[in-house]
């Protein structure tokens, strides 16, 4: 039905073009979009205080003119948008905040707004003895309230977990992970090539940006005991990107990477037709969970509604989004000082796509890589790469140089966001590895949390030496 009236059958392919493909056309100046999720922790080792949640919204409304646009079932705001069209939200629980920044031609404009908001919120957090973390996993997950938001979409997703997966409590996967998502505009003719390239760079993303250790900071056996058995088993194996495991084991449709190269745009469309619908309209203003149904099969039914399509999207690590962008979803939230390093890297690579693709092709051939992109990424996050370290270092340094050259071609000064990667003596080390090093050096968990939450590298950054240790103590963190 559409607007309460029965609909005739529609072409599934035509719908895929309308929902996804056609939105790539006629955009004008290419833009960049960035979404950054950040865990919120209560430093008293308790759930996030409702008073702090309300205070964050009040600050954004009063200082930055954010206006609530979406509410939970109790009427509490869970999303707010300002005149710049930047959006603040609680997407899954009150343990994670997200800024979905309005698309802009350059990173500078996005970063300036983001840091204005987060600086103000971090000051407020300190007043309330909370912290906004630059980590890809909630370091205080053991104390978090993992119940999902009381919103129509989240209630439907919870229903799906309870009824159609092995996660019958319906909440455990919503509370913990945080990502930095980059949206890139691309010419439609280049879409298959860019998707192929980014798929092959999944392991590089892990080596540069992995930042989610497996609840290493939980320290709570009761918490661990209530995790699904599949997660408990995975926690026994070291990984630098536990987000990957959470997504792999969550049993939601449309999350697995597409591990083959696209030969054409039609193959991209075919893959989108194969994605699943699993949340549909409940016939009024809400949603309901259904057993997953392939999109093309769902549209072939006699009756369906436009509202049934509102939650349909790809959740893959590299996805075609309904904004007419390529969305890179596989990146962990970074230490806050480095929040825009992933966007800079991918923007530069996309600008230099031909050179980057040639380098990747040669690297695959020279090293006789015959495993899938996702298997290669799993090797990277498990620190089990079979390619010699010196070859990896050379390859990634060359990729970083290609990204920097692409950014310089744009003449916006955006190569500065690659920061430490452009230093001649930089180590091939991601934030998760750095955290493990700091723990070995005697840093406390709270000092590392504070360093990941610093807003510039001149302060208590995880990449500085221990000259700044003790700053967490001065800030009132429990060390």
TrEMBL record:
It comes from the Bacteria. GO terms for molecular function: ATP binding; glutamate-cysteine ligase activity. Keywords: ATP-binding, Ligase, Nucleotide-binding. InterPro entries: GCL_bact_plant, Gln_synth/guanido_kin_cat_dom. Coiled coil: none annotated. SUPFAM superfamilies: Glutamine synthetase/guanido kinase (SSF55931). One of its GO terms (biological process) is glutathione biosynthetic process. This is Gamma-glutamylcysteine synthetase-like protein.
